[in-house]
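Handout, section 4.2: multi-component inputs.
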Amino acid sequence: MISIIFNIILILFCAVLQSSPVINFFTLLNWIKPDFIILSILFVTINEENPLISESLAFSTGLLIDILSSDLTGVNAFCLTLLIFVINLIKKNISILRFEQIFLFVFISSVTFEITVLLLYKIFAGTEGYFKNLITLGIPSSLYNALLGPVFFYIFKAVHKRIVRSGT
Amino acid sequence: MFFSFILKQKRYVLLIFYLLFSLFLMIISSSPAIKVIRGTVFNIFTSISSGFNEVRHFILDSWNSINTMKDLKRELQLAYEKINLLQDASVTIAALQSENNYLKDLLGYSKRLKWKNIPAQIIVKDPRYYFNNIIVNKGANDGVNIHMPVIAWQEGQSGLVGKVIETGAHSSKIMLITDQNFWASGMIEKSYYTGLLHGQGTRNQHLEFVYVDRNARANFGDMVVTSGQGGLFPKGIPVGVIMNVEDARYGPYYKKITVLPVVDFNKLESVFILINPVSEEILKMRDSKIE
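Output:
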């Protein structure tokens, strides 16, 4: 139970951080910004044993992003739920412990998420510049996420361990 | 039998529910019911975010206070040794005076504006990068309505920020002029030639000024303002300065002009939402059409 509450607070904290002016400190070249929300939900997915919880959190987080970011409700919720479902399916067969493993995991997950989000925007909202957005925004930001991923995962893991241990 | 199957396969049932529900939301995204739900979640999150901002300000203020205390201690020690303290004090007074002047300037600007306006503070920035939106702390209860123009006052210059696209009770979402979905009618201030201003997305912090007559006099550094055509934005609000002029690829009769916004969106903290009488008229017309 403590773990679930920790996960919810972590995602909410990352969402608030992501949408606050604090994000300016992490923005590279004035336009590449990391996605703490994705990082937190990916961390929750590999850390949470019950896939139902991570998928439900992914759906709720996606809806929150939809409300804050775009006019089209459901796009981020759909893509994030699907992504987390796929990760839950394969996570037992992959190792996500070392720096390069976390880097690859975060990068592939982020890029997949960006591709599907942009595709749905194009289909449902007719948003222009699919490839331009993907190449100039989606991929650089995914790469940035991947670079920050290992650091954030270690921090999240350490905080999670401490809180769960103190709770039991 | 059916329920036992659902219980056994609850993960897959829930997944299918989530996916179908998301698709359903995408399809009915513009319906009034969804807007109500969006508004409610919007309000809850902005309340949390405002709380976070308060905490952030408290931490920053505390941090600044600690630093100030350290500085003061050091200065006090120096004061015993040197008379330069007076100079330091005068610097501090000058800084306070400049801050005071800035705040007076903002207040004066708000009063000087020829349109009724609602000053607002930015509380949330867009968490994703495909859209350029901000959320401010004034909403429908404060008189904010969708389509209202938003401007800012920075370093002695006013500039167009964007327009309101969504309102909650105490907060509103504003689409910035740099958003790729932003379009507005613009005019070169010196030569009166008009065209359409179009945002270019997060990466490019400039706008394109398209469909400008090929013969238009447009020079580097000329100011582009809103033309007032279309009714949403009042005439004469500065948008940006011309950075580049070239012949358009889409037709032999037009120029394509790159415009750098006068507002620095990274430094933006407060804005003014204009209660534009024209936009109210348009809203009334729209509402009467719906009825």
